[in-house]
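FAQ: What does the model actually see?

It sees only this:
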Amino acid sequence: MAEAETPVLDLLTRMTEASFEATTLDDKQVMLARIAALVATDAPPISYVLNLKLAGEVDVDGEEVTGLLSAIAPIVGTPRIAAAAGNLVRAFALEELASLAALDEVDQPVEAV
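And it is asked to produce this:
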């Protein structure tokens, strides 16, 4: 498989685009609903990374995510909120590692061929 091929990521992108087109919610509401769904399904940290990146693009801030967690806590329960908090921390750590890796690649000297 060629390095540039990303069939699963491409499929997820198309599904995400279709969900935005199919709803009457505004982009911010969609992202808050998606984050709530991540909590409810005990999604892994990488799911938070992908969705928080999109959420940031539509101006969802940390205070709104915290408010969301407070709003859904009575429904999903303490274990889901605690797991979500841990997964959010891991998501931020993954983002930080990815940023550092990207910087490290930039700082590497180009080898002569």
